[in-house]
Design goal:
Blueprint: H1 2-22, H2 36-48, H3 50-58, H4 67-70, H5 72-83, E1 86-96, E2 101-110, E3 114-124, E4 127-136
Helix pairs in contact: 2-3, 3-5
Length: about 150
């Protein structure tokens, strides 16, 4: 009598665990799901270089004009010296922290290596703005497990 009860309990718990894993709001997104402020900056990076990318990302945000934010252009320039030209990007994962706050994890592909990027965006009315971002050649900045 105890064995069937135990099996049913285990089945219910396992089903609940699997159902909650499927229902997680964190998910892998496609390029079309990325806020346009991010993709516009990446296009500016490819076409016009690091300075234009950073200016595009921070336009209209609280960090617009910030020396710290603008210094990220120097970091991207150094990455190009090391890895070569920026080629493309891929979405690694995203995490919705709230209905208006999202973290995006991307890998930027260069001629000779990857750069990992983390962008924090915030929705103001109809538009997304960038509130912080950072880059690293090491994957240490990525959460584990990935969203």
């Amino acid at each position: 009598m105890r064995k069937p009860t135990f099996l049913i309990l285990c089945s219910v718990l396992m089903f609940g665990y699997l159902a909650s894993a499927v229902a997680l709001p964190d998910q892998k997104r496609t390029v079309g799901d990325i806020p346009s402020i991010i993709t516009a900056g990446l296009e500016a990076y490819k076409d016009k270089g690091p300075e234009e990318a950073v200016k595009t990302w921070i336009k209209g945000s609280p960090i617009e004009g910030s020396k710290e934010a603008l210094s990220q252009a120097n970091a991207l320039r150094q990455i190009q010296d090391f890895y070569g030209s920026y080629q493309a990007f891929e979405v690694i994962g995203t995490r919705d922290l709230s209905s208006r706050t999202r973290v995006l994890y991307l890998v930027l592909d260069y001629d000779n290596g990857p750069l990992f990027a983390k962008f924090l965006v915030y929705k103001t009315g109809q538009n997304w703005i960038l509130t912080s971002f950072n880059f690293n050649t090491k994957d240490d900045m990525l959460p584990s497990p990935l969203p």
